[in-house]
Amino acid sequence: MFDFGFLELVTIGVVALIVIGPERLPKVARTAGLLYGRMQRYVSSVKSDISNEIQLDEMRRVGQDFKASVESAVSGVEQEATAVDDYLRDEASSVKKVVAAMAETEGERPLTEPAMKQIETAQTSQQSLPLEEPDQNSATSAPSEAEKAHAEAVGKSK
């Protein structure tokens, strides 16, 4: 804090000894030391409080930046989801129009709910076929869903 050399401290001590006197100098020195210690503790506590406030302010800014980035990401995802939803709705309506047009041109009635369910189950069973090669290490291979359905169909027809 202050730049005191040894010579300055000796000069201050001699002047204090002359002015205060030898009998009161130890009490004054003790009191001055206590006051100096209190001042150091107060300065260090003020420094730590200022440092804590600066860190807290930085954390608030980081939190606000993070919140803003998350909100912008959420809005971007919502926009993409809306676009995909609109696209899928348009595609579904165009498929319905094509199916209705095909039914009118072929003179058939539009598909009913049970017929639609049968078509969906047939499509899902075709889509659930395993695309990977069977495990070469297994001794017995389990029949696939398509093989089970084929066996049931053959059993029913006999």
Summary tags:
158 residues; mainly alpha; rod-shaped
Q: Can you tell me about this structure?
A:
The protein is mainly α. Helices cover 79% and strands 0% of the residues. It is rod-shaped and about 125 Å long. The termini are far apart.
User: How many angstroms separate the termini?
Assistant: 106 Å
Structural class: mainly alpha
Anisotropy-based shape? rod-shaped
Tell me the fraction of residues in β-strands, as a range: under 5%
Main sheet makeup: none
Oligomer: single chain
Report the order of strands and helices: HHHH
Helix run count: 4
- Radius of gyration (Å): 44 Å
* Relative helix content: over 70%
Which stretches are low in confidence, meaning pLDDT under 50 for 5 or more residues running? none
- Nearest-integer average pLDDT: 80
